[in-house]
Amino acid sequence: MALSEIIGGLFGVVPNLLALPKERRELRDNALREILVALDETYLYYRDIERGKGRSDDREALLVRYWSAAAIPMRHIDRDLAQRCDQKAEYCLNPDTYDADAVKELGIGLESVRNAYRTLLNPRSLVHKPSAVRREPRL
Q: Are 86 and 57 within 8 A, CB to CB?
């Protein structure tokens, strides 16, 4: 095999190798975006409950979909967090089967998931530590 053939082959591989970090970055961004949507929608729902609006089966069903959707791309980035998102979807589907201890043990409390999200978002940043533990409303 001639040197020119080897060099030609390498030039064919280099663009594919350069695309890998970009694809990985896009996958990571999509996974983080899905979790952010699930977190934001869940916080907004809990805020509405705290303000006196009643529970909504439609919004709870939507939260199940958001958390399930967040678990799918996250499995390529952080399997533990993907599992927690899946478990959070299950919690939103059947909240009465979980007590506060189970939520804490599974790491599916909103603050816990948000801290994991923020760690992935910027691993060097400080994770937010609330001065008072915020209790999630009982669904």
A: no
What is the pTM (predicted TM-score) of this model?
0.75
Question: 2: which 2 tokens?
Answer: 């001639």
| pLDDT computed for residue 65 by the predictor | 98
Q: What CA–CA distance (Å, rounded) separates 117 from 40?
A: 12
**Alpha carbon distance 85, 102 (integer Å):** 15
Contacting residues for 74 by C-beta, under 8 A, at least 6 apart = 31, 34, 35, 81, 82, 85
Question: Of 43, 35, 46, 32, which Cα lies nearest the Cα of 85?
Answer: 35
Q: For the segment 20-37, what is each residue's pLDDT rounded down to a tens digit?
A: 577 888 888 999 999 999
Residue type, 83: Q
**CA 74 remoteness from chain centre:** 6
**Whether 71 contacts 22, CB under 8 Å:** no
pLDDT digits (tens, 9 = 90+) for 36-66: 999 999 999 999 999 999 999 999 999 999 9
CA proximity to 26, closest of 77, 86, 71, 83 = 77
Contact 31, 76 (CB under 8 A): yes
